[in-house]
Amino acid sequence: MQRDNLRSSGRPGPRIAGADLKVGPCLFVMVLSATLIACVRAVPRLSANGEVTIAPMVTSHCSDCHKRSVSDALPNALAVFDLDKPGWLAGIPSKHLEVEGAFPARLLPFADSKTAVKLRAVLDAELQRRRQAAN
Ligand code: HEC
User: Fold this and answer.
1) Is the CB of 100 under 6 A from ligand 1?
2) Helices (H), the chain
3) Is the pLDDT of residue 5 over 50?
4) Among candidates 134, 43, 34, which has minimal Cα distance to 87?
């Protein structure tokens, strides 16, 4: 009853109607921005996920020389990658990650067939990410 009275009297209707109009476009902009941010960040994220996937394997076989916090780590090895630096996978030159590259060649002898498949998938995704980033 009271609502009708408000409308017919020319005064603004229930407040909720006005609130909907303001929240709608605002939510749309927020969802749109979140989607755009997610897309822009998807490229580096791929590399980070792959890194996390293979980190246990790489750490257990390569950290003696390729991890700065290990006392015997070698400067020339750290120049190629340093397991203490997040983003270490992204810094390894592509030629070392390719099928015949030094990175899989050194790790594969330690990998069972399932781990080998996982390693190859991560390295392929990383190389693919770089090709896309270069375009
Ligand atoms: C005993 C020390 C040592 C260990 C362990 C080691 N590396 Fe290295 N690595 C080096 C050094 C030193 C270099 C720098 C190049 C050089 O002097 O031969 C290097 C270079 C590399 C390179 C660059 C290409 C090349 O051959 O120079 C890759 C890729 C690499 N290492 C991967 C690995 C991986 C993967 C592991 C673990 C399976 C590993 N390394 C374990 C010492 C080591």
Assistant:
1) no
2) 2-8, 15-66, 75-80, 94-97, 102-107, 113-134
3) no
4) 43
Whole-prediction pTM: 0.74
| Residue 90 DSSP symbol | G
What is the 24 CA–ligand 1 centroid distance (Å)? 56
Tokens describing residue 29: 């902009």
Going from the Cα of 77 to the center of ligand 1, the distance in angstroms, rounded, reads: 5
Q: Which of 61, 64, 65 to mutate to test the pocket of ligand 1 (most atoms within 8 A of CB)?
A: 65
C-alpha to C-alpha distance for 81 and 10, rounded to whole angstroms: 71
pLDDT at 16: 60
